[in-house]
Structures are given as structure tokens and as C-alpha cells.
Write a structure and sequence with these properties.
The protein has 355 residues and is α/β, with parallel strands linked by helices. The chain contains 14 helices and 10 strands. It binds glycine.
């Protein structure tokens, strides 16, 4: 079972937590994995408080770099520095760096300990919690990976102040997802439009409840046999949308694709008579109030190959987790291509009416 994340609300608390790593018995070496952004914006905040000496490994940022070539680069660096199973890897970054570095650490010498210090909202609310490691392979997102719990996850919300608006919105989609699948009360308290993110002093008071929802679910079902599947709400369509647009000159960020995925899946749930028209309307208008600027026409034909490859399918049935009301969801719901096409048509009409 994964350890619960620890919150460090101030740099001083984070420094104390890092200082405790020096006390860990038998540790031979520390590796700090960063990308070019966290190397510049985040590493300097903690560099003097990390266990000394440590080796820094810098990876390129961006979803297209979450691949086996960069995993090989990490393994080579570990080998060159004689990393052994008593080494500890500290991953300072967002979801791409986190998924890929955790995969490299979890497979090197059958697994060495890794600590996530997520620096993006997406990684704090989702990627760094729950032990999923992954890389992309060919055009397919996250098809190679495993479940390995992090030794520790430290959430330091002050890193979010370094993020541009677009990256905050990227992570907020997972918070909307958590509220929609589990917590109506939380949904009603979420900020109603994204001007909220453009102010200087965001207090992120929905961050801890969002993290707690995810942690609660993975505590009960770490390897996604049952209720963890609920976290895939918005992701069956969302991953296909993300994968398709990654092959174009107009890619979407993960959270943006998930926002589209949630809206289409709400139309699907309504069509399958799982979700009432009223709740579908409420959820879709809320999502659109934050993501209107990225909503775009979707063609089923562009998604088909990705939908058929989804890890959660059973034979040719495409598996969905869908909301059944605001604050509750069901998993293992299957839909036919015709039903999915119908939902996409509804979504395209909905987006068309906005312009
Ligand atoms: N991102 C979904 C999960 O961790 O299960």
C-alpha cells in the first residue's frame, strides 16, 4: 500500500523533511532527477537542504520525451555512478518526469526507492499519488509501466506559484474529476471560473481534499481491480483525444484532453441513461466554464485506434468509468462505437453552440 503524501506548506517544512533523509540508515547515494524547468525554478529552493553529495540527472520536459530512450539515459547514469539498491532517487518535477523516472527507478536492479516531490498541480493531484509508473510507446500513452509505491511523496504547494496559468488549469481537471466522482460538497465549493487562477494569491484550499480523495481510493485498491477504476472517468476518451492531438501541430495538455473527455463521457452517460440530463448539464457547464478556450471539434475516426487499444477494454467492448450523479460514479460500463459516436456528436453540437 502506498504511503500517504506528506504536505510541506512552507519551504522550511520541506527543508526539515529533506534533512531527515540524511538519517536514513544504509543509504549509499542520492540521485535528484529534474527537467530543464525544475532545474531552474525548483532545485535552487531545496539544493542546500538535500543530502550531500547528490547526483543530478536532467531530462528533457514534455510528453513526447516520456519514452524508452530517456529511461535508458537514466539507467545509464545510474550504472555510471554505481547506483545500488540502497540508493534513493528524488524526483523533482511534474507528471511526465515523475511517471518516467519512477518507471526507471522501479525497474533498475529490480527496484530502488524513489521519492516524489511534485512541482505541478497535475502531479500533486494525480501523477505522484498512487504508484503508477509509465512511459509512452509508439503513439500509445502509458502502455508500458507498473504499480510501484513511492517511498514518500512530499507535496509542497508553494511550488505552484512558479507555474503559469495554463499549467494550473492542466492540473485542475483532475481535481474536478475527483469532486465529480466522489464528493458533491467539494464540487459545489470549487471555483466557478478560471479568473480564479489569474490572481496572485491563490490559496489552493481544494488541493488537500483532492489529494485525500485520490489517496483514499488507491489505499483501497492499489492495483486497480475495482474502485480505482473510478479515477479513469474522463480518461478513456481523454487519453484518445490527447494521443491523437499529440500527433498534430495542435497538441493538448493532459488536463485539457481530460476536460474534453469528461464532457464527452457525460454525454455518453446521459445517452446510456446512467446520468440525468440535469446533472450532465451542470457538470458540462462547469467544465466548459474553465476550459471553453480549448474545446474543439472531435472526430470519432481519429480516436478509434486509441480507444480499441485501451488497457481497460474487454475484447472489443470499450470500458468506461462514468459519473452517475454529481459526486458518484460507476466503473466497468461498456459502450459500442455507435454510442460513442453519438456522444461525440452531442459534444460537437455543444461546442458549436458556444461559438
Ligand atoms: N490517474 C489515475 C490513477 O492513478 O489511477
Amino acid at each position: 500500500m502506498p504511503n500517504s503524501p506528506v504536505f510541506a506548506h512552507t519551504p522550511a517544512t520541506l527543508h526539515q523533511l529533506l534533512a531527515q533523509l540524511n538519517q536514513l540508515p544504509h543509504t549509499t547515494q542520492f540521485f535528484v532527477l529534474v527537467d530543464e524547468n525544475t532545474s531552474h525554478h525548483c532545485l535552487p529552493i531545496i539544493a542546500h537542504h538535500l543530502p550531500q553529495p547528490y547526483h543530478t540527472i536532467t531530462l528533457p520536459s514534455g510528453e513526447s520525451n516520456k519514452n524508452i530512450n530517456n529511461v535508458q539515459y537514466i539507467w545509464q547514469q545510474f550504472l555510471m555512478q554505481n547506483a545500488d539498491r540502497q540508493s534513493i532517487v528524488i524526483i523533482l518535477g511534474g507528471g511526465v518526469l515523475g511517471d518516467m523516472s519512477a518507471f526507471a527507478a522501479s525497474t533498475y536492479k529490480r527496484g530502488i526507492k524513489f521519492i516524489h516531490i511534485p512541482t505541478t498541480l497535475l502531479a500533486m493531484t494525480d501523477a505522484a499519488i498512487g504508484g503508477k509508473t509509465a512511459i509512452n510507446f509508439g503513439d500509445f500513452k502509458n502502455v508500458i509501466g507498473n504499480f510501484t509505491p513511492a517511498y514518500q511523496t512530499i507535496i509542497a504547494p508553494f511550488f505552484l506559484k512558479t507555474l503559469p496559468f495554463v499549467q494550473l488549469l492542466n492540473g485542475f481537471a483532475e481535481t474536478i474529476k475527483h469532486a465529480l466522482i466522489c464528493d458533491k460538497n467539494m464540487f459545489e465549493k470549487l471555483p466557478k471560473n478560471n479568473t480564479f487562477f489569474q490572481t496572485q494569491d491563490i490559496n489552493f484550499d481544494w488541493l488537500m481534499p483532492s489529494v485525500q480523495i485520490k489517496q483514499h481510493i488507491v489505499n483501497h485498491d492499489f492495483t486497480e481491480q475495482n474502485q480505482r477504476k473510478l479515477l479513469n472517468y474522463g480518461h478513456t476518451i481523454g487519453h484518445a483525444v490527447e494521443s491523437h492531438f499529440l500527433t498534430t501541430t495542435n497538441p493538448l495538455l493532459h488536463g485539457e484532453a481530460i476536460a474534453i473527455g469528461m464532457i464527452i463521457e457525460n454525454f455518453l452517460a446521459e445517452h446510456l441513461q446512467i446520468l440525468s440530463p440535469n446533472d450532465a448539464h451542470t457538470a458540462n457547464n462547469f467544465i466548459a466554464s474553465h476550459y471553453r478556450h480549448i474545446l474543439r471539434t472531435i472526430h470519432y475516426q481519429n480516436l478509434e485506434k486509441y480507444l480499441l487499444q485501451d488497457k481497460k477494454n474487454q475484447k472489443t467492448n470499450i470500458n468506461f468509468s462514468l459519473i452517475a450523479s454529481i459526486g458518484s460514479a460507476v466503473y466497468d460500463q461498456f459502450a459500442t462505437p455507435q454510442q460513442i459516436q453519438f456522444a461525440i456528436t452531442q459534444y460537437n453540437q455543444y461546442v458549436g453552440q458556444m461559438t
